[in-house]
Description:
The complex is a heterodimer.
Chain A: E1 3-6, E2 8-11, E3 14-21, H1 39-67, H2 70-83, H3 86-99, H4 103-119, H5 124-127, H6 129-144, E4 159-163, H7 168-173, E5 179-184, H8 192-200, E6 204-206, E7 220-224, E8 229-232, H9 236-257, E9 273-278, H10 284-289, E10 295-299, H11 301-304, H12 313-327, E11 331-335, H13 363-368, H14 370-383, E12 388-393, H15 399-418, E13 428-433, H16 436-440, H17 442-447, E14 451-454, H18 456-464, H19 482-497, E15 501-504, H20 514-521, E16 525-528, H21 530-540, H22 545-556, H23 561-576
Parallel strand pairs in A: 3-4, 4-5, 5-6, 9-10, 9-16, 10-11, 11-12, 12-13, 13-14, 14-15, 15-16
Antiparallel strand pairs in A: 1-8, 2-6, 3-7, 7-8
Helix pairs in contact in A: 1-2, 1-6, 2-6, 3-4, 4-6, 12-14, 14-15, 20-22
Chain B: E1 3-7, H1 16-26, E2 32-37, E3 40-43, H2 47-52, E4 60-66, H3 70-85
Antiparallel strand pairs in B: 1-4, 2-3, 2-4
Helix pairs in contact in B: 1-3
Amino acid sequence: MKARIRGVPGSPGIAAGRAWVVSGSEPPKRTRRISPEQVESEWSAFNACVEVCEQQLERVSSRVLESVGPAEASIFEAQKMMLLDPAFKRSVRESIARELIGVETAVRQVTDEIAGTLSRLTDPYLAARATDVRDLARRILFTLSGQEPAGLANVPPGSIVVAEDLTPSDSALMDKKNVLGIVLELGGAASHATIIARSLGIPAVVGTKIPVRSIHSGETLAIDGASGEVYVDPSEEELSELASSIDVERYRSVRLWSLRNLPGLTIDNRPIKIAANIHSAKDIPEVLEVGAEAVGLFRTEYLFSGRACPPSEDEQFEVYRSVLGQMNPKPVIIRMLDAGGDKQLPFFGNSLERNPALGLRGIRLLLREQKVLNTQMRALVRAACYGNLGIMFPFVSGVEQLRVAKSCYVRAKEELERDGVHTGSRVDIGAMIEVPSAALMASALARECDFLSIGTNDLIQYTCAADRDSPDVAEHYDPFHPAVLHLVERVIRSGHKAGVWVGVCGEMAQISLAVPVLVGMGVDELSVSSARVLHTKDLVRQLWADALRVTVEHALNLATAVEVKEFLEEQFSGLLGE
Amino acid sequence: MPEVVMSVRSEEGLHARPSAELVKEACRWQCVTEVCANGRTADAKSILQVLALGAKSGDRLLIRTCGEREEEAMQSLVAVVERCVGAER
């Protein structure tokens, strides 16, 4: 073995394949002088290239629109506008004619200058547009050299993608059949690329901090996404050892498939609903295929992103009706728009808050944007009769917000009834528990709603005061921090005391080692990505819920996350087989 | 050659979306269209130059049109700026 690199576990699983280094494919660099007679032919070469790039961008944009969403597609729309920018074209022409340089040299000079100007702006958002300009420059230069930028759509079969970082559109455009694994220099366990990898079921190691340049395309790599290890150029022996674990995984997947029509039930017959998280009506076929017993979290943000104004009541109604109808009679929890913080939407005229994580987000933003709240609420109430609906409010930090939000529900229902619309169906109302203040007040919240759902990503971030996306502090963001466990346990206990069910819809429910803890605490529902439903169900069906209460008690008395993990690993090593 | 001074109200300033709206509108007109802010002048038909103004909330924008149907062009640009960044004269 040449080297072993240690990163942060991104997405579990073992993979071995050939490295495919993304940043390794730079367009050819050369400075070419021309004679004055050649100016016109260079200029027409540029114009021909612009036309080709325009078509490429249109293709990419429509593909991304279909496979990812409007927000990501708009990135390419913006690049198209830059490509066709008259001032940009003028500058390229002037450079060619004045300095007598080849078109590719001119494009490089002009785009370097523009990107430089933008990156020096004080507004961090505008400074980030320099990335778009550089990306566009790459496309133009590739096209001039007669190639198309490979992107991740053309990854060869059997690849482990190695990159500094991946944008959501990069990751979403890659060919899932060909990508066996992902290694990223940047990013943490909960950054966008990692979440996408996990939801696609692709093993990933992130935050390696080792420059991707040290890995070369074509080198053999083996990665273990659960431990965060990357083996560069492993020996035959090491490979066969890893390969046997891959076979074990394959065997497991066949066995898992046989569980899809069975309920989530512990050995001692305690039902634990295994639900799926979705963000679009298109996810439902997969949810049903893997036998999820509910939709535990429908993130409605994707309906709102990348557009100039919010979707109309009718448009939303159609989406909700479709999801509820396809899942019926299985329950569907729809979370109301959770924007703000790291999910900014243009039509809210978002402010540049000094500290967006502690700012106007979730229910706080909705209560300020009453029109958006009412429109979504009316669409939900109208759709309720097509299935089994639960409405969940995001980012609740106190009882007052829940009361006001509930009154909006009542008002929407009354309005619709006055208009003669059928709203007879029962709707459950719940609060998402993702802020420590809400976790501590869970008893009071539970008395005023029908269910609680714990959003662990934010709850961990706010409890540990660690940004999950920052590699420097990612280690402090720990689902097994005893403080986090105490809060989760308190929420579940408080919910049950008030007679409501409590689910977990965050990433924590996807961690194998956390499942026995949550089951021992008495959780009623685990909502995970479709790719993890069978695995989670398999785990739950091997657990003895009653016996786990002692395990939980012991874990809650430990002092550090490391102690908790060591204890749990020792307890469940046989069960997890990981 | 009409000129109008406006100040940016929306907190995000001239970000990608409002800039794109402004550029699209400017491209509909034959005449020369310019926006000045922070001591820089941008061709209002150039998204790259408009973004490079870096106009933030509270900054003053000077809009200028010159040439064919310059008055009408000015009115349409002012309307877009008012709508997209909540600017006031």
